[in-house]
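Board notes (copied after class):
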Amino acid sequence: MSRRAFDTVAAGDPLPPVTEEFERYDLIRYAGVSGDLNPIHWDDEVARRIGLDGSVAHGMLTMGAAGGYVTDWVGDPGAVLELNVRFTSPLYVPTQLEGPVQVVYAGKVKSVDPETRTAVLALTATVDGRKLFGRATATVALA
């Protein structure tokens, strides 16, 4: 694995958008792995009873996908020093028969620090133009 080189990154540079698909089965698998078996993540009826529009993805699942997006961009999972996300909207995931929901992850280089050879990235996650994240940032170490 090779980290992105410091001299190839400048404040304001866009990160290429990447689309991730989430299906109901992803929520069920994530519930099992994470131990978060709350039925709002896989049962529409339960989710609607508490005022949601349907089953919602685990916040940490969408945040983890953002972490993967950052890792792919920087080139080394060990280069991700910090990841912060403020959630503003739930990710509703339709039934298997309805197909997957598509989340577009994107971002830009917010700042670079030549002394520490790090960059702060501003991240977005959207579904049909609706923001899932409010303020989301990642700090990465560059080569």
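Comment from the instructor: Residues 6-141 form a domain with the Thiol Ester Dehydrase; Chain A fold (CATH 3.10.129.10). The chain has a mean pLDDT of 96.
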